[in-house]
Amino acid sequence: MKKKLTQQLDSIDEYEREPIPQSKLKGIKSFVGMYAGEHVAGTEFVIGPLFVIHGVSASDLFMGLLAGNLLAILSWALLCAPIAVKARLTLYYQLEKICGRYLVSGYNIVNALMFCFLAGSMIAVSATAVGIPFDIAMPDLNDWYPNSAGWIITVLCVGIVITAVAILGYEQISRFANVCAPWMVLVFIAAAFAVMPRLGITSLGNFWEVAQAKIWTGVPAEGYSKFTFCHVMFFAWFANMAMHIGMADLSILRYAKKWQYGFSSATGMFVGHFMAWIASGILCAAANGDVAPGPIAYNSAGIAGVICVIIAGWTTANPTIYRAGLAIQSIIPQVRRWKVTLMVGLVTTIAAFFPALVMRLLDFVALYGLVLMPMGAIIFIDFYIIPKLGLRSNYASETNSPFNIAAAVTWIATLFFCLFLNFYQGVDIFFLGLPGWFIAAALYIIMSKLYQRKTTVQPQTELSADTLNSVKY
Amino acid sequence: MLSILKLISFIGLLMTVVPSFLVFSGLMELNFHKTLMLIGTLLWFFTAPFWMNRQEQPQN
């Protein structure tokens, strides 16, 4: 058992510090399936209702989701995928070559913390379904802290099970998630259609009229800000900012034969982040504004709905905990991986006690992307612009430096600039990613010019846009 | 054997989604739809794992 587990973990580390060989490249089907499965998660049950609570109008929702998801697909296809298929390196190795291992360690800690909170929200989503047979009082919109002992016990049980599985059976869960994906998509569709008559939608002809009057009314719940087309568009675009603009999916798309496979993210966006968000919004309206995923799914799809919420939370929390464990373990390699995953699971479960993580999920998702985005800008600039300016790409690896000050200053200064815009200029967190990217890009160019001028470097041939453009794949 | 399993899985998916359209059309009660959905779910999970996952997924 132990030997098998070690082999499993070793297989995940494959090609972590070298480009993927031609023989290991995957066809487009693998990416289509993976994106479709990965973006139908437990959190989809929460995001749709939160749009309803924030009083988005029907037209703003549909147009915003169309535009935002299209921009997200373009970000995957035009920013992330071309670098992934040219360099064929993981995000972490690419970053280490640019930033040095100390700065990457800092990035890994932040990344792991974000993963913990994200997995925590997924555990909380599952707990809202597990608690139904025991008649546990579910947290409501205004609950930020645990509202009952029953809630804490339920979350603790779910957290223990998910952590244990993350330690013991990552690969099996990954396979199980693949099996669940098509079924989960259909549960979302079925649940929404089944409750439409309760809202007064009896044909597709009167859907729009009722949607405007009873679902996406344009009136926010008390204490919640009003969402517009821009909020929806930027949220849909940046919900996975860490993955596309932040370049985390370099690790996945490096297996693609062509950069055009980045467009396969369309399956995840238009199934998970379009259809599922609309469906869960309908479920919320049919449950009179309730946002707890378990009850609204039970209300519309019975036990199958409850199973769907549990599985949706579980199958996505598991790899998230596992990835957080990997990120931490890369910093403290002497500690056994199962101990690290156990520690991460504990932090995640404690985070899940707090319903605020679910009720403020939109803000958290936006923050998650924003914090990791500057590193994506640094990779983009380092790959395409830096060589054209006569500067060196992959500066840390070329100079054997463990810490690229230009990258560190860019990361921190960009985040401070975004914080300033948020606190003092009142710019909503959903809108900060776009100016933040340009600030990070400009800062990295300026800082690199200043920093590289001061340092003597050894000439060395390394991966860069110029060298790689001449290589045919 | 594999074809039969796939057929049952497909029936499971149909039982998961089609009853909801009948509820929408006013041809079925919500509670009956929930029961059929559960049966469809069980059919899917007892058959699909035996034929899915044959193709490798890209690794993270």
Please provide a written account of the structure.
The complex is a heterodimer of chains A (473) and B (60). Chain A has 473 residues and is mainly α. Chain A has one domain: Hydantoin permease (Orthogonal Bundle). Chain A has 20 helices and no strands. The C terminus of chain A is likely disordered. The C terminus of chain B is likely disordered. In chain B, helix 1 runs antiparallel to helix 2. Chain B contains two helices and no strands. Chain B is mostly helical and 60 residues long. At the A-B interface, helix 2, helix 8 and helix 13 of A face helix 1 and helix 2 of B.
Q: What share of residues are in beta strands of chain A? A: under 5%
- Give the beta-strand count of chain B: 0
Protein structure class of chain A: mainly alpha
Would you identify the regions of chain B where 5 or more consecutive residues have pLDDT less than 50? 56-60
- What overall form of chain B do the CA principal axes indicate? elongated
Computed structural class of chain B: mainly alpha
Total strand segments of chain A:
0
How much helical structure, as a percent, in the residues of chain B? 55-70%
Q: CATH class of chain A, please? A: Mainly Alpha
CATH superfamily of chain A: Hydantoin permease
- Average pLDDT of chain B works out at 89
Shape of chain A: globular
In sequence order, what are the helices and strands of chain B, one letter per element?
A: HH
Largest sheet of chain B: none
Helix and strand run of chain A: HHHHHHHHHHHHHHHHHHHH
Domain module tally of chain A: 1
